Amino acid sequence: MKKTDFFKTSMILGAGALFLVLLQSSCVNTKGKDAALISTIITTDSEGFVQKELPYDFNALEPYIDAKTMELHYGKHHAGYTRKFNAALAEEGIETDDIYEIFSNISQYGPGVRNNGGGYFNHSLFWNFMSPDGGGQPEGELLEAIEDSFGSFDAFKELFSNAAATQFGSGWAWLIVDEEGALQVVATSNQDNPLMDIATVKGSPILNIDVWEHAYYLKYQNKRTEYISNFWNLVNWDTVSRMYKDFV
Ligand code: MN3
Q1: Which DSSP helix (H) or strand (E) runs through 41?
Q2: Residues 236 and 129: beta-carbon distance below 8 Å
Q3: Is the pTM of this model over 0.85?
Q4: Which position among 82, 98, 164, 218 has the lowest Cβ density within 10 Å, counted as fewest Cβ atoms?
Q5: Is the pLDDT of residue 13 over 60?
């Protein structure tokens, strides 16, 4: 090979490698943001972030979650988080409609953005992770990933239930796809979530459960574990599986 040819070949290979690096890093950065399903759940209009309609009636999750709880939880709590989130964004002069960008910089903002932004997002997902036709167990790719990660579906359920039951005070338990593409079960306090820069373990959520008392107290009073064990009758595994595929 002539010296000039060698130089040309090196240039081409170098440029190709750089292109691949850029392509790969852009995939990682936009994976969550562009995920198909989540972008239909979290949307904005001229008023800011939108609280979507519940995908079912208030009484649809009976007998596991009662209609009155759903009415208050969706109509008062979630609506309140949504309203206050948009107000807090306006107050802090945050103009982006990219919730991933907001969460990945959450430590720079005040508690109004953190608490209400989490409250808006976490509940928006939660309603979609449940269905009157839910329950059972996942199939295919997600089931395999759960078995690979946790040993069995039952072992996963136990781990997730335990994370939800032992979260001290208010918070959430999550199944996430972490930054390496692996499944993990984590819990967060208050309205924090695993997309926030302050999260101990970060990742993309594919299932969550609200363990604030307002989520279960009317029906279950202090029996959080009974609420958690009934939650498994409602899990919409189609949605969880679709979300899993969006993130891996
Ligand atoms: Mn709640």
Answers
A1: helix 38-41
A2: yes
A3: yes
A4: 98
A5: no
